[in-house]
Amino acid sequence: EYPTADQVRAKFTFSYVFSPVPAAGDMRVDLPAEALDVVRAQFAKVSEQRLEAAMADAWDRVLEMARYLKAKVTTGEDGKKPRIFATSIDQAKELTELLVGLNITNDPDLEEARVALKNAIEPIDRDSLRDSDELRDSVRIKMDAILTKFDF
Question: Under a CB-based contact definition with an 8 Å cutoff, are residues 92 and 38 in contact?
């Protein structure tokens, strides 16, 4: 039920990058052209790493939510149905709205995954999901489709 120590450790990283605005007389402004190119390349690399990390986080959120919802609608081997809370559905709906802003590179695959998640959960509520095995199967199939297509 709980993540492993490695999974928790992977969620926390720290790095410091200080990048003040250069002014006249700043040593970076007065650097030779070759050294200035190295500094520019370092800033570009850090910027790209940040962008990649932001997009990876958005993908992680989508896939984690799809896995979570799939688990919530999948009947266990013992025949028991996991409890479904209204907050689970609400969090998934909030994520679909949040992903519009998180897709900063306008990744068409992320948008497709967001729309698929939204279409799977938008018409449902907790009570109908609890009461209908058919609806649970439908959501499970849709989450499987998202995970199959995008969990790379």
Answer: no
What Cα–Cα distance (Å) separates residue 149 from each residue in 8, 106, 110, 113?
26, 18, 11, 9
DSSP annotation string for 41-106: HHHHHHHHHHHHHHHHHHHHHHHHHHHHHHHHHSPPTTSPPPP--HHHHHHHHHHHHHHHHH-TT-
* Nearest one of 120, 113, 125, 118 to 89, comparing CA atoms: 125
Mind listing the pLDDT tens digit for each residue in 59-109?
999 999 999 999 988 888 888 888 888 888 899 999 999 999 989 999 999
Q: State the Cα–Cα distance between residues 136 and 125, nearest whole angstrom.
A: 11
Give the dihedral of Cα atoms 13, 57, 2, 72; nearest 10 deg: 170
